[in-house]
Amino acid sequence: MKKIVLAGGCFWGVEEFLSRLDGVILTEVGYANGRTENPTYEDVCYKNTYFAEACLVEYDETKISLENILNEYWSIIDPTILNRQGPDVGSQYRTGIYYLDENDLGEILKSKEETQKKYDKKIVTEVTPLINYYRAEEYHQKYLKKNPGGYCHIKL
């Protein structure tokens, strides 16, 4: 199994969307690449922690490729907007691809380059190694499954 962490605005919709892909084994929401240890949702929203709301994706690469996951990811975000997706504004809502396997970097950069051809504005989605990740509180996990009709900026 392979893993990648993707940030695309509010993590509820990103998780729900990616969990529906055939070959995705597990999704979990959390906070990625911030400045503190063990952040809470309130810390991420109201303090200067610089964490991104993100979705950890574990997938079976014999059933779905990283390329396919990234193509789906690009389809649900606007990668040209900094620190915002839909009505959600703040650095925690930035878009980002955080990789755990250095061997994935080439494929990620190729995907970003191909996606850039679809936009006049520069893509601002960050691509960096996963520096740190903390699982979000339980009430955020599978939020839209627990709360059908709950808030989501992504058309599911």
UniProtKB/TrEMBL annotation:
Name used for this protein in its record: Peptide methionine sulfoxide reductase MsrA
Protein's UniProt keywords contain Ribosomal protein: no
Entry's family note: Belongs to the MsrA Met sulfoxide reductase family.
Biological role: Has an important function as a repair enzyme for proteins that have been inactivated by oxidation. Catalyzes the reversible oxidation-reduction of methionine sulfoxide in proteins to methionine.
Active site (catalytic residues): C10
Molecular function in Gene Ontology: L-methionine:thioredoxin-disulfide S-oxidoreductase activity; peptide-methionine (S)-S-oxide reductase activity
Underlying gene: msrA
Highest rank taxon of the organism: Bacteria
Keyword Membrane belongs to the record: no
Keywords: Oxidoreductase
Class of enzymatic activity (EC top level): oxidoreductase
EC nos: 1.8.4.11
GO biological process: one example: cellular response to oxidative stress
GO CC, one annotated term: cytoplasm
Reactions catalysed according to its record: [thioredoxin]-disulfide + L-methionine + H2O = L-methionine (S)-S-oxide + [thioredoxin]-dithiol; L-methionyl-[protein] + [thioredoxin]-disulfide + H2O = L-methionyl-(S)-S-oxide-[protein] + [thioredoxin]-dithiol
